Amino acid sequence: MAAWCVGELAISADGLGEHELAARLIGAGTRAMETLHAGRYPADVAEDEQVVDSLVDRLGQDEFDRLVAEGRALTLDDAISLALEG
To answer: What pLDDT digit, counting tens, does each position of 19-38 carry?
Structure first.
């Protein structure tokens, strides 16, 4: 559940203009879901893709990829702390 929540917090961060944080949380959430062998809820896929597209437009593909990689390197606990610090 925490893995899914981290990914969902990325949507909130993006909406608040915290685009770099959102990209990192996408990376962390994706990694956590992969570690758990869990998939995204089908109802969330369209919104998730919309946020990724928006972030790539704002940050550029290279910066987005860099930030997602940083997020993927975080532990789930570190990602939650990052989200709380915002």
So the answer is: 999 999 999 999 988 888 88
